Amino acid sequence: MSVADSAHASSGLRAVKALCEESDFKVGDRVRIAMRFPIGHYRVPTYVRGKQGVVKMILNPMAINNEEEGYGRNAGIKGRYYRVGILLSELWPGYTGPPQDQLVIEVFETWLERI
Amino acid sequence: MNHSEDLLKRLPNDIGGLPSDRVQQTDHELLPWEKRCHALADVLDFHKIINTEEKRRGVESLGSEMMSNLTYYERWIAAFSLILFEKQILTPDELAQKMAEVEARYAHDSHKDS
Amino acid sequence: MEAHDHDHHPMLTDEVMPGYYEIMEIAVRELLIEKTLINPSEIRRQIEVLDSRTPALGAKVVARAWVDPGFRARLLANGRTACEELGISFYDDTQLIVLENTDKVHNLIVCTLCSCYPRSVLGLPPDWYKAKPYRARVVKEPRAVLEEFGTHIPDDVEICVSDSTAMIRYLVLPQRPAGTDDLSEEQLAALVTRDAMIGVVRVEI
User: Fold this and answer.
1) What is the pLDDT of residues A54-105, one digit of tens each?
2) Residue C160 contacts residue C170 (beta carbons within 8 Å)
3) Distance of residue C143 Cα from the nearest chain A Cα, in angstroms
4) Is the peptide bond before A61 cis (omega within 30 degrees of 0)?
5) Looking at chain B, which residue has its C-alpha nearest residue A72?
6) Buried b / exposed e across C14-28, counting CB within 10 Å, b at 16+?
7) Interface partners of A (3+ CB pairs, < 8 Å)?
8) Are A72 and B54 within 8 A, CB to CB?
9) Between residues 47 and 76 of chain C, which touch chain B (CB distance below 8 Å)?
10) What is the mean pLDDT of residues B87-106?
């Protein structure tokens, strides 16, 4: 096939994305923050662990997992952070404020479980 | 979770949701050395000698007693020193000697003043 | 460093002599400079950077967003690049998300794990932002904490607390107060306080 022929065959043209180009979660996905207890360093506070929420935003670009960065890893495998919304009534049983009040927090993808 | 586990599992800075007092709307102008300490933190991060995340980890690993008794920038400079030892950039003895030298310099200067 | 009140206090050297941690700061800095790992001009320059970052920058951003719908849209789409349009650089690799307060949502920011703060546009955070009471309580009882700042949010307005824990910094875009139609952009900026951009108070005339 000549160059000209292949240029004409554009109807089926599609750039396949690499695995890392697609985010694991989409906006609106329901997720649970993992119930897990890393020691030494973490950026997922205890009060959100095991709680359910909704992905509100996918944060780009990808970044080093800050649990690793905390030990001096300035390069290597990267992943995505997501802004996850969690209702205050989910976080704090007995919350007396309006039911729509919420907290939003950035969570690294390895901490998110699909529900 | 028992108490001895909790000491390791819950970092001393992880305080979201814990009972606490009324918010007192306090503030202060940074002292010159505090501002220098902040600038040092930024420069160390620019060079990735100590990145921001390592600084956070270093402060946490001071433990809850130091976290609650040292001021904000006291925690930072203590953490930097310990991280620089870990990274073999400084040695404890080197820092001790330099601190003695700095102290002697100031003692000398203040003697001249009076 | 100058000594004051030279003759009335026996603890004169305590006033002149830097404290233990200040001596440590001087020693660490001098050792790193001797090893040519950092340069003294970098520290001086970064102090100038810190001194130049004040809530007046954030106020300028807010006022521009109030008067220029195109800028407001760009600011909400990408806080960092919109601030850069106004000459406000970001001296680290953090992104900025601007959270718009409306009749339906009231945003406020906190960092429960340390003291993350939009330093590029607001300068360094106030002490209360770094202290335990605000960090511990605002994620659990935001309405009570807001009342302590004199801010009452009606129940039909959603509270949205953003806990800033990783690579993003947040700036609250407060609501423009009523009765300010005749004010210039500069006059509007003068109304915008640091605390309004953290989200603990409203902008008042």
Assistant:
1) 999 999 888 999 999 999 998 888 999 999 999 999 999 999 999 999 999 9
2) no
3) 8
4) yes
5) B54
6) eebbbeebbbbbbbb
7) B, C
8) yes
9) 47, 49-51
10) 97
